[in-house]
Write a structure and sequence with these properties.
By secondary structure, the protein is mostly helical. The longest helix has 20 residues. Helix 10 packs parallel to helix 12.
Length: 214
Amino acid sequence: MSRFQATLLLLLAPFTRQSAFGDDPSIAQLQQWVAGHNVAAIRALGRPVLQKLVRLYETSKEDGFKARVAQTLYELSWQSPQAKLALMKDVHTLNQDLRLQVQWALGRVSSDQDVVDTLLANMRSDPNPLFRDKAACALAYDQIHLNERQKVRLFGALIEALRDDKYDVRHIALMALQIHTGQTKGFDPGASWADREQKVRVWQNWLAQYKAGL
């Protein structure tokens, strides 16, 4: 390789992410808008921009930029099977900022059952209490595309989480239920097992009535 060729490769290196899109001049602008959190400009492009955002996410080698794309997808709140698949690949990443943005964005781009199940598993089983807590936040605030039957399934899983051995899981499951329903049914995550179990049965009776009324 000549010195000229080597120099040319160095000059082109910053544009390797753009090369995945061929010669599309709009990609550089989209990258700037994502990095600058200009969601209004991105929204104005309409739903076709989702495909480019997903490709930006998938081709990025930088977790910080991927977190920005996930945040953009969260704020757009447009359903996208492609965005869901891309985000699910990072739902267990150890990068804190990326994990949180992914957990929050997933419910904004999908109503699929595996999204809810994955967040429930993170809420109950992740070794990091922060990720457990923020998964509960995602279940409480961000499942915006669920239909009523899907909500019943979510409520049932949150009620079951009231039986978890971990105090913090019982607490955040109750908070998620309260945010969705405005109720606690008198459940105290720090009470005795017998008292907690009695209140769980109250919740289960409520859910059966709720489901029957749909």
